[in-house]
## 1
Amino acid sequence: MLDKKVLEAKSIYKTFTDPVKIDVLKDVSFTLDYGEFASIIGKSGCGKSTLLYILSTMDTDYKGELFIDNQSTYKKSEKELAAIRNEKIGFVFQFHYLLNEFSVLKNIMLPGFKSNKFTEEELEKRAMNLLEDLDIKKLAHKMAHQLSGGEKQRVAIARSMINDPIIIMGDEPTGNLDNKNTDIVFEIFNELTSKYKKTLLIVTHDMSFADKTNRIITMDDGRIVS
Amino acid sequence: MKVKHIAEISIALLFARWKQTLIAAIGVTFSIALFITLLGFMEGLNGLLDSLVLNRTPHIRLFNDIRPTEIQPIEISEKYKNHYNFIKSIKPAIARNQLHNVDAILNTLEKDNRVEGVAPRTLAQAFYSLGTIELNGMVNGIDVEKEAKYYSFADYIPEGNYMDLKNVANSIILGIGAAEKMLAKIGDVIIVTTTSGDQFPLKVVAYFQTGMADYDKVQSFVNISTTQKILGKSNSYINELQIKLKDLNNAPPIALEYSKIFKVDAEDIQTANAQYSTGSDIRSLISYAVGITLLIVAGFGIYNILNMMIYEKMDTIAILKATGFAGKDVKRVFINIALSIGAFGIIAGSIVGFLLCFMIDNIPFEIAAMPTITTYPIDYGINYYIIAGVFALFTTYFAGWFPARKASMVDPVVIIRGK
């Protein structure tokens, strides 16, 4: 990789005006390099999740500049941003967010259907490989609602990987899991950086989880403090 | 994004709420079925009522009306040529309501390829003698084969064989009203008295019934040569030529053309029966209005159900958008759902509509006025299915469009963070 910057945020400001005017993010700037496993920590309400949703391109209501893979997201249409999310960003949420109407395999393949980067056969093969890596191959043909919490989160991680993104973001991905599953998820994330060379950005309030990551970004009152 | 995958997502969402979806689809089915049945029945009835009049009405009638000469002698006079001549109380001269040179006219008409057929008529005013009582009558001399071919004459004969008019000499087909008054059975001989006092015995071979009582009480049909005999005229004496055209809509211009060429009066069907088509048009209009209202109501059903589905599937929409589906893709999914409901409704509705039509078509419906009709009339026109289908697609598309737009504008951050 010639340019090592995967993500760059330049003085991002965000203000909520409803119900009262609150500055949630103030002059947030940082860069994330290729292959980094970073976590964002901070008190609840400090703006870490808000920052993550801005970085994920889902929230466009902010001031400042954001580069993903050296591409500016400024003034991009909803459709173009969706394409960036689809191809470059994998997302893991606190509440798993699998689609209950689909099987595990289809859930993983869905973002791939959108991107059209792979054929359906390739997608299925990729999905099966991912499931195998995450040790949940036997769940492939179960419906999403039949899974336990830990299993769902692992499926969600597999889904975030399907389009071979350059960065994976997580919003408290272990927040809803017990210790055992938290460890499993952490191991998977660790493997993603080491084996697949993915860049990870995880918002968490679990200090023991954050301590194990390569880089800790601490936020307080809308600013990055370290 | 391939259509196949959009379809896959749509189907999954459809079946996730299959009961609601089914109700929406039944709504569309019901409205399509009723639209088709309503239109089929109404147009069938229109066709029946129209045919009651239009089928036996010639498209163009050629005749000589009784009227005063247009150019009065004084206007030809050299002496008064440059004067204004006021003439009061002009009366028609000798009534010659016979068509001149009928053979030549018939020849010309035969060669005209816009004409399907021509049937001649000779009318004779007469009385049906019933002991000492004499009933007013109108004896129509016809060519029974041509009448049957062009004007469905056979449809109005409830009893007897109309071809006997040609095969049996001095025979008559009596209107059912007249026959009842005279107690004339088929095979009886009745006496017809002409205006000049001559009496003719004629054998009743059949009855006819048009459904218009006044008509059936007065009119009767005989062979054209019989009328000529009753009137004491030669066999070229013909009062009227009734022309059937290949296309009824061309009647007015052709009538005008013939009246100029043959120098006779020509009356087209549109002028003679303007009120019938107006009635049919208005009945059709009302049926379409009701039918289309049904389809729109079904559209509201789809709108409601999709709106509910969107509230219930907020999470699904949010996750699709978070993983990179654009608003447009989400919109396509929901429009797809609406169109699938519509398509199902169209297919099921067409089948149910056809069955309903078929059922109505088999309900006995016998009225004295229409002897050939035994069941309710139904028009099985494919056009009603097409109109219903196209309109239902439009309605479901729009019913889907608004909720789909709403879904496409769901902000994933609000949904995901709101948890």
Note: Strands of chain B lie at 60-63, 115-130, 133-142, 159-160, 171-175, 189-194, 199-208, 219-223, 240-245, 265-268.
## 2
Amino acid sequence: MTAGGSTRVVLITGASGGVGRGIAHACAELGWTVWIAARRRLEGEQVAAEVAALGGVGHFVECDASLAADLDRAVATVVETSGHLDGVVLNATSGLSPKPVVFTDVPLTDLEDHVAVSLRGLYLLAKATYPHLLRSAGSFVVLTSEAGFEGKAKLSVYAAVKAAQRGIVRSLAREWGPQRVRINCVAPLAGTPAMERAFEMDPEMAARVLGRNPLGRMGDPATDVGPIVRFLLSDDARYLTGNTLMADGGSCPIA
Amino acid sequence: MTARATTTDTLMIASPLDVLQRLCGALSAEAQPVPSCPVGEDAVGFEAAWSDVESLQQWRDVASSGPKVAAVVVAVWPEAHVAAPLMSMSPAEFARRAEWPFLAWYAALGAAISRCADGGTIVALVERPSPLDAAGWAPECGQADAVEALVRSLARSEGPRGVRINAVTTPARVAPSQPIAPAPPLSTYPGRIDVEVTDAVAMLLGAGVGGVTGTVVHVDCGRSWR
């Protein structure tokens, strides 16, 4: 069994579907307590039930990951109910993320939603959870993207906020390390409803995405990506901080 | 300056111009100032960074409408800050250091690609704390990586019309006075804006790098290895 034990308590934002749901499933398999933080109550409660069915303890807490009050309330609920917080996953992303737009056609007003969820959301979630991670010598994981490494011609805002998250994580790793709190990124490539929407909006995208992937397939959120995030949340990764793990089947070679 | 851009029409979209005026002069560039940050010292939340997006949009439209030029340098630098842990920053400080610069960089790069002629070249000059010295500079580290990604996005979208776009990074204003060990390889660390940084920008604007696009040159005297 991966180190961490069945008493580990983790909070995952944007976990009502897609990659977040897969991470929740992976954590549930080790009996962890998993808090699903999302705006969509019905779907979030369903994922919490799936966590319980897989052997974990599942909870749902309604939360808009771009709002300080929501995040503070969600974190307070987690700690009051479960007693402590060992791991945090920032998985929420803007609903505009898969929408392809030419750079000069992007209304500047569209930038705020990306920034509010991905950058402000990181700042707010870090502020809300750090005191608790300090007590547990915990772990924080940010879901970024290969887009943040290589850029995307028509997803430039998404690529930029994902890259910015990595830069912030690089700094936080050095700020938090002396207190034994770790922070890392994972860049997944997974078959999710969001990816399916992106493929629908850009019909050539599927060929571009799969044609470069040496493993020749999309990752599975629960069995390919989830265990990698779970590893970073666990004590097995106690000597790993400030890194980005590419959970993308070799699609984006950075080494 | 050891290299020189071959272009005679260079536009520099930049702020603050008082910090960057010698670079602008060395490149014989026409200066296009970027609007200043609207987040004042008395701001209390994130909203101030987004309070006047319409004006910035109008600025982008105006800045985009000038004559085409062969070379554009973009440098959207905030007012000087001091290193501070992210956990100690107020929402307004985060808005000032992270959110507004993101918005302003996006607007400025949009103007740059509109102004850059086919076959031209763009250099984004961004402040970047070296990874070993990243503590206390979370917003600035994020901004630097965001600009790198924007440059790579634009290299893809503008490449078909022959436009090259690259980035130069510098820790000149964000380097610690006493770097942690090991010492940077060059004694000139963190590098001078009007010497090493200007040379790198001129190199990327000049002849001899026609196959180079979407790259990042870290002008930090060897402090970064990636």
Note: The domain at 9-240 of chain A is CATH 3.40.50.720 (Rossmann fold).
## 3
Amino acid sequence: LELIGRGRRQRRRYTVSGLVQGVGFRPFAYATAAALALTGSVANTADGVVIEVEGDPDDVAEYGRRLRAQAPPLAMIVAVAQEELPSTGGTGFTIEPSRGGPARTLASPDVATCADCLHELGDPADRRHRHPFINCTNCGPRFTIITGLPYDRDATTMASFPMCPACRAEYEDPADRRFHAQPIACPACGPRLTLVDAAGAPVSPGEDPVTAARRLLASGRIVAVKGLGGYHLACDARDPAATGELRRRKQRGGKPFAVMVADLGTARRLAELSAGDEELLGGARRPIVLAPRRAGSGLAAEVAPGNPDLGLMLPYTALHALLLGLPGDPPGPDALVMTSGNRSGEPIVTDDGEALRRLAPLADAWLRHDRPIRVPCDDSVSRHVDGAELPVRRSRGYAPLPVALPFPVAPTLAAGADLKSACAVASGRYAWLSQHIGDMDDLATINALTVTERHLEELTGVRPELLVADLHPGYRSSEWALRNADGRPVRRVQHHHAHVASVMAEHGLGAGERVIGVAFDGTGFGPDGAAWGGEVLVAGYRTYRRAARLGYVPLAGGDASVLRPYRMALAHLHAAGLPWHSWLPPVAACPRAERDLLARQFATGAGCVPTSSMGRLFDAVSSLIGVRHAVEYEAEAAIVLEGVARAAPAGPGRAYRFEVSVSPDGSDVADPGPVVRDLATDLRAGVPAPVLAAGFHAAVAGLIADLADRCRERTGLDVVALGGGVFQNALLISGASRLLRERGFTVLRPRLLPPNDGGIALGQLVIGASGGSWNPAEED
Amino acid sequence: MGHGGGGAMSGELVEHLFLPAHGTAGNTVLGDSAVVDVGGARIAFSTDAYVVKPMVFPGGCLGDLAVNGTVNDLAMAGATPLYLSIAYILQEGTPLTEVRRIAAAAGAAARAAGVRLITGDTKVVDNGSGDGVFVTTSGVGLVAAGVEIGPHRATPGDAVLISGDLGVHGVAVLSVRAGLEFDTAVSSDTAPLNGLVAAVLATGADVHVLRDPTRGGVAASLNEIARTAGVGVSLEERRLPVPGGVADACSLLGLDPLEVANEGKLLAFVPRDDADRVLAAMRGHPLGAGARRIGVCVPEHPGMVVARTALGGTRVVNMPIGEQLPRIC
Ligand SMILES: [Fe+3]
Ligand SMILES: [Mg+2]
Ligand SMILES: [Zn+2]
Ligand SMILES: [Zn+2]
């Protein structure tokens, strides 16, 4: 029996690579071995987690299966290699000390409080009952507290909180859910909450700070709340006075506020949620989810004036859960506005002193704690469209998850673009995109880019040898790259090429592949000096050729025409040869003097740049049909236009068509003139705005399919990549994807990264690392 | 091609094309004039070409602009401008009345500035080879002993002063170029600044930098100074003197007044303790009546210019890129 038993023993080494450290992988390996009665060991190494197991061959094989199938929720397994070893006998399963340095240890994003921790939070018998900083290996802060690698308590902002004996025992027990949970804490040893006033003095000392904060919120006050990646400004979202006051103090114009609700049930009452929306809402990443708002939800109108969607999120830390009330708590707001704690245009505030100073005009009280935030990290924003995620802002919960690259690259840094900025570093087969940084207008944001990029280098060990930046001569991000180059080469890449390459890379297209890239966005610098933005590029990673574009119209006065869409409407009317009749809404909206000036500018070209921007066409149509003439945040006119279009009755609507012709250089030019003229005619005839807006969306979707068809005829390509901020429009991306699939195209849609400039750094990386640049060279 | 706008693009041409070609790269301070030692005298030398469109605009014309421009470039080195040369390139068919007007304006400007036009040249080119009248002026002046003025001397702590209203010349030119009219009429501020500089130097203040913010406006001048000296410049947006007519025009055209050209204003960097004295001297001169302190030179953000906004933000003031391109995506 002994002989037979020994003969049937097998020893195997599993090397698991990917995001496998700091996510509870070793206790999982330990518990799985115990469950299968296998002996052996586990250790963190430079390659990932190395496990040796020995026992019955069937069990050893089963172990390998469970490694993949039952891995801890935070683990992201890239590969499992296996190697047969001679049996060594032995008893028990040991967790061995880490070996070989951090190398490519991937840092985990911050993770929403798990169900087990939430249960303990509400359990009066648990020693962490109502502890705002409860966490375990399956949840809690990571990215925002990591100060260095290897990921260890000493290399986090928890270093200044020595563990109490009880926490220490859990931390060291391989069978415990908190084994090596670096941010482990309890009421005895963890961070502490305080509620203070503008002078930093405690508000209602002796009382539970959360209880006191809830009372303030219920009475219509604005409370600054220190969260994971920065401060929020919170107020009761059902209180019009409080919400209106917050909007006034933040000088935020009409930009929507995000709302955090107590639970999924509340979320369902506020918005129409698909199964996918609910999965996003309740998932570990816990972004703000955009979903159609329900009428009569009882939310204050000031939350998102004129916006068809609501941005909802669920609590992602125990503090948030407590703030919204546990079952049995005294009543309080069940929906809180939770907007970034910053002043207009500045990055989110993370430092306690800064919070008191900078948020002084904004908040009535500060609910804060004594655990420092290492890097700012805003909430992510996402939505679910046709069964897949369409990220809008990739930040907390996502960063710094790497994106696997289709081919290895030299250490590279991409600076991103100027709005909704995010940078990225890459080396080998991984790219790491930073969290959302903000708009590069303010010095504080540019400084945040510097801090963010350094932190990213620390976490990833990438030491960039090449920098990549946008071709735009006035981009602050590009100037930042030049300033920080320090002798390293800076490669400049074209904006829309980068949009397309981002989508190609996240879908894993190989180095030699090409696609029909539809890049529709606001504006980007074109090598011909025009403001591009409605482009079809036949694109590979290294080169691209412009296969089609929207017809040029004059964009007068740079950003002025972006903030006042009626100017774009007048430009399109001018280009379409339509007189500026006084009954046309944009004509009525434009002051006489400005109109006369524009007329002369369009006639002479003075102060005008030609643009092929699709985003600006959306703005123009929004104004043309009387929806929005001026905006307070970019893309507002287009977003509201989409909302109007969604209100159109189902069934076939108006059929508008762009006129496509071939230009002398052989590329297609799509003239929006016929669409503009038909819209004006229908408007005059009294066709309601939703029908006009829906007809326009259908026309753009149809144009995408037509241009792709023409491109396929010439190139034989049948893969279409959709990129650029215009594709945040759910109605458009859904309609265009359907049409393209009907015509036999394979559609690549942004799923991991936002289609907007927040995802552009990945494209910059792969283009730059492929040796590509702005030159629209011949097809390769 | 935006290389004429006086910003990043023309800077690139100078840095990557002309300086290497001339063999002067690496040892040239990129000021508007050079100060050299000639037989024991410190001579400032400057040259400039003028191609403004239209040739006549409210408040001036190509002739006085060309003289004032070179007088000012010399004055910004702390020199007393003395002699100018002037060369005209005329396109065949340009009306003589127009040429006469430009030449008369040049002569009047020289008299007003107290300099003499002592040599010159004229060429006529075929119709199509030129575009109206081009004027090139060069000039020399004397720099007094002890005067050491240049962008490299900008020092953290310096007060940044401006002699008056911003953006006036650029808006005046725009208003006639392509027939753009604004509610408030604006005339060019073209003027010789040597008298104002003399008044400033007479205070005995240790003036570090003088600069006339012409093409690319204050934004271009300050960015160049910040980069040359490796310092930061921090402006107070609410202190910037932007007259109503300029503000209105800029808002309609989507321009930043900081990026609009001036032809009769100077920027000065002086030690904080000298600032009041210098301001008083400026205000005592007709061309400096509107002088004020607009910011400070700082050790932070070297090479960058920022403007503190009314909202408490800190907007980055970029080097103008030579044309109006939207950045919003
Ligand atoms: Fe873009
Ligand atoms: Mg000059
Ligand atoms: Zn947990
Ligand atoms: Zn403890």
Note: Chain A touches chain B through 58 residues (CB under 8 Å).
## 4
Amino acid sequence: MQAVNLLPRDISVPPMLRENPGASVSIRNVSRSFDGNRVLSNLDLEVRPGEFLSIVGQSGCGKSTLLRLIAGLDKPSSGEVLIDGQPADQSGDRLRIMFQEPRLLPWATIADNVEIGLRQGSDPKAIHEALTSVQLSEKAGMWPSVLSGGQRQRVALARALVSHPSLLVFDEPLGALDALTRLTMQNLIRDMHAKAGFTAILVTHDVAEAVALSDRVIVLGQGGILHRVDIVRVGPTSRGSAELAAIEAEILDAIFAA
Amino acid sequence: MSLTDSLSAARNRGSGWRPSLPKPEALLPYAVPAAILALWEIAGATGLIADTVMPRPSIIVGTATQLALSGELFTHLGVSAARALAGLVVGGGIGFALGVANGVSRLSETLTDSTLQMVRNIPHLALIPLVILWFGIGEGAKLFLVALGVFFPIYLNTLHGIRNIDPHLIEMGRAYGMTSRQLFRRIVLPGALPSVFVGLRYGLGIMWLTLIVAETLSASSGLGYMAMKAREFMVLDVVVLSILLYAALGKLADTLTRALERRALKWSPAYAGR
């Protein structure tokens, strides 16, 4: 039986020297309450340009809330979220989101759906390039209803990438996919991240996925960060290797200790 | 290639074409109406049903041909169709506009929706005595009644369509930097369209119903007038012909709307491959 090989990050090019160095994210003393119920409390977090950070934790731990604050879809009750030093809701098309559902417009063709992510006034050729990079260029003229779940999520990825964002946030984007499609998508996201160099923040409940994709995993719980793990990759690592399994166990322990 | 060349080429291509008979399954929906017509004709011809009670199909076809040749039929048809269309445009237009306004703006909805719901519960035909006093028996009365009848199904279904748009799509649109105008044009309007079409088809039914009643009560032209005049002179075949024409016009309007719907909603799996 062969393990699925995960390509190592292209470490020969430091993030700062890539065409798109990725945005830095600063979360300073952030709290968020809903009807008096405090979900996040005085949270601090720095994300380096080009880093792939995963946020894991039990359901209701506030990981989606944190992601929505970073994406500018919600405002903190106190504290600030800065992207490259600017408030999150002013980042425009430098920030893109991938949701758990593909959220494609059913009445627009695949190409028109990707066009939504295109920067105003930029070359429409980018649509074709983005679709080619997710291997769906031949479906450009079709309706989303004819695609499979995995293909739809790939269109959503193309829509997110077409404007060459410097920060991409993922809200459990692979949660609704079957196990095999999920592995394919993980490899695709890793490749894209290695090539394009954007900063990526992924919320997931799948610890193996977090470990497979990220440079750093944080465990959220009780309104704050319970645990941080840096994952240093030197050479090819394969899913199921002893090192990764040990990291997964460490993270799971931290989650259940909460 | 000259024009005559291309014309003859087109003719040659066409010469291979033979009108093919429709498949037997395609004829099935027409089997029952055809059988009824046949029985009706036989019953009339054998004297089982007197022509003074219910003229048989062949007599009605004769009357229709006669009225068509004299041009009278098309005058009345045209007048009725114009009234129906005017009422649809006015009532449907206002209904759509208010549906959109109330679907998009909470303030507009709070201001108008409960009033509209109250008015909706009045059968619009109950207003006929009032309408005749206001507008007399002119075109205004008919336009008002048809517009009022068409208004509600289109208003309610437009509002419902906008309400039921997936809020996730709106959030996606905002997150991807769409302006309110773009949100409306790219998400709200196409998302509400299937429901608007339901309202339109329902409204068309009410449109014909209202028009028949309005024209039967008071008119000096139109299909309803033709039927009422025929009744006074006991010309039963014209009465039956008017009724059949209403059925045909209703079916025609529905078929056109369906075709439009299929075109506009071709993205929907419900219409794919049809």
Note: The longest strand of chain A covers residues 37-47.
